Every structure is written in C-alpha cells, then in structure tokens.
Amino acid sequence: MEKRSILITGCSSGIGLCVARGLAQRGYRVFASARRKADVDRLTESGIENLESLQLDLDDSFSIINAVKLVTQKTGGKLYALFNNGAYGQPGAVEDLSREVLRAQFETNLFGWIELTNRVIPLMRAQGEGRIIQNSSILGFIGLPFRGAYNATKYAIEGISDTLRLELHGTGIFVSLIEPGPIESRFRANAFRYYQKNIDRDHSVFRDVYLGMESRLTREGPAMPFTLPPEAVLKRVIHALESKRPRPRYYVTFPTYLFGYLKRLLSSRMLDRMLMRVANAGEERPSDSD
Ligand SMILES: NC(=O)c1ccc[n+]([C@@H]2O[C@H](COP(=O)([O-])OP(=O)(O)OC[C@H]3O[C@@H](n4cnc5c(N)ncnc54)[C@H](OP(=O)(O)O)[C@@H]3O)[C@@H](O)[C@H]2O)c1
C-alpha cells in the first residue's frame, strides 16, 4: 500500500521536528518544511527514512505556492494530511503593540496557515479524504496578560477552523485543533527574540513587568510545572490522523484540561480572577512557554 503523506510546517525545532520524526518512523511519507535553507539542509542531512525536506516560509506566498507545487508533484497529487504548526509568540502588552507588529504576528500564525490550507484543500477534495490538523494552544481559548498578539492569532485559528470544519462536513476532510499547554521547545527562546526586536521596554508603563518577563523567557529548562515533551502532541496528531472519527479538539497537558473545564464552569469575571492570580504568581502561568 502507498504510504500516506503529510506536509508539516515549522520543522526546524520543537513540536514540528518531533512530529516529523515520529510520523516518519511510523511509516508516513513526511514532507518536513522549514523556512530557512540551513534548517532544510539539516533535515535532509539527518537521513531519516521517509522524511523529505523542503523550504516553506509562511510569510511568503511564493514560498507557499512552490512548496505545494513540489509536494503535489512528488505525491502525484495525493497529499493525505497537513499539520499547520509553524508559528511564533510575540510577547508584549496590547498597549505596546504597533499595527505592524500585530500584523506580522497574524501573517505568520493565521494568514500563512489559511493560505497554505486553501492550497491543499483542492488536493484533498479530489481524493475524497484528508486531515487538516491545526496546532492551536491553550491560549486559543483563554487569555493571559502580555500575550495579546499571540492570543489573538490562536483565538482566530480556533474560530476559522470551527468554520472550516463545518464547511468541509461530509467531504471526507476532517479538521482538528490541538490545544497544548506548555511544551518543551524553542518557543520561549524565539519569543524572547521577538520581544527584544519589537517591544520598547524602557518607554512602557509595564517596564517592571517586562523585567520579570525577561528572566522567565531566558530561564533554562522548563519554567513551569506540567510542561510536557513534544511527544505529547505527537500522540494527539497520530489520533487525528488515524482515527475514523478524529476529534474537533485535542487537549494536551494538565493546564489545558483544567482551564478547559474552568472556562465552561466559571463566569468570565471569576475566570479573570483566577487567571490574574495565576499570572501574578509567576507573571506568566499557566501557559508559560506559550
Ligand atoms: N511550546 C509550547 O508551549 C506550545 C504550546 C501551545 C502551542 N504551541 C504551538 O506549537 C507550534 C510549534 O511551536 P514550538 O513550541 O515547537 O516552538 P518552536 O520550537 O519555536 O518552533 C516554531 C517553529 O515555527 C517556525 N516558524 C516561525 N515562523 C515561521 C514562518 N514564517 N514560516 C514557517 N515557519 C515558521 C519556526 O521556524 P524558525 O526556526 O525559522 O523560527 C520553528 O520551526 C506553534 O504553533 C505554537 O504556537 C506551542
């Protein structure tokens, strides 16, 4: 039988890399993409069986078009699944986000994902089946201070994926959202770069908060309890790929289960009180890496 193929974005590190490796080992034909050539070369040189690497920058429509063309050629138009994963977190108070910074966050985390998704849906429609798996976050359904830009993109991906799921009903194409809490990856280190680049700490009313945030973002190792390795996400991706009835949502990590439950149980005011307590306790919790 022909191997099932999957295209994954953001495979230079973290969850994308882990899922690419894990699915290749499981026998999928994995198209592992990264935006930088050096990472694409590294993936190629890794010599992992069933894994092919390619360049895909979510901020660049040409790059998306070329990647889909290449995958279409290589699979003869038989792409089974897409794992939308490549993204970054822009830290900072909402008051400190310029229009450009917010737009850049949406370009990568939302517009790039949907542009790519819309280019693979015709392949899936033609074959009468497919899986679209969106790596959302706990921050796709609860808000935390100083995560506004990232929060907004993850809420947006949740909303548009809910719509897409309904629109694809009956086509054989399933849309699933994965909602991880803190996962070991390069997320914090990358977020710190975006913080340094785009937030003017010394002219912000939140200067003191930012000083605390800096120490969290640069701390070595997991900065909070309940952090899981990326294999926890891989497990949910496998279910979303292989189940006859993939779930619309997959929680990953204890904080996601907890806040998923509390969100349904508490009033917004009560939930806010809890989230403020949690945020103040370490400035960052419950989804510190994210
Ligand atoms: N870690 C967590 O705690 C956590 C929790 C919930 C959800 N998530 C989600 O998990 C996904 C993966 O993040 P991660 O934790 O594995 O972090 P990560 O190690 O920082 O990986 C993020 C990946 O996204 C890529 N990326 C960033 N901008 C891109 C662009 N314009 N085009 C293509 N790729 C781009 C990065 O590439 P570069 O190396 O080139 O920057 C990297 O490969 C994200 O969607 C994130 O929101 C993470």
In terms of structural class, how would the helical and strand content be classed? alpha/beta
Look at the structure and give the mean pLDDT. Answer: 95
Number of helices: 10
The oligomeric state is single chain
- How many individual domains? 1
Largest sheet: 7 strands, parallel
Side by side, the strands of the main sheet go: 3-2-1-4-5-6-7
Ligands and ions found: NADP nicotinamide-adenine-dinucleotide phosphate
Broad CATH class: Alpha Beta
Gross morphology is globular
CATH homologous superfamily title: NAD(P)-binding Rossmann-like Domain
Would you kindly provide a written description of the structure presented here, covering whatever features stand out?
- With 290 residues, the chain is of the alpha/beta class.
- It has a single domain (5-282), classed as Rossmann fold (3-Layer(aba) Sandwich), CATH 3.40.50.
- It is built from 10 helices and 7 strands.
- The protein has helices spanning 14-25, 37-45, 61-75, 99-127, 148-167, 187-198, 207-218, 231-242, 254-265, 268-282, and strands spanning 5-8, 29-34, 51-55, 81-84, 130-135, 173-180, 249-252.
- It has a 7-stranded parallel beta sheet with strand order 3-2-1-4-5-6-7, with helices on both faces.
- β2, α2 and β3 form a beta-alpha-beta unit.
- α1 (14-25) crosses α8 (231-242), α3 (61-75) runs parallel beside α4 (99-127) and α4 (99-127) packs parallel to α5.
- The longest helix is centred in the middle third of the chain and has 29 residues, at 99-127.
- Residues 284-289 have low confidence and may be disordered.
- NADP nicotinamide-adenine-dinucleotide phosphate (NAP) is lined by residues 9-16, 34-36, 56-59, 85-88, 108, 135, 137, 180, 182-183, 185-187, 190, 289-290.
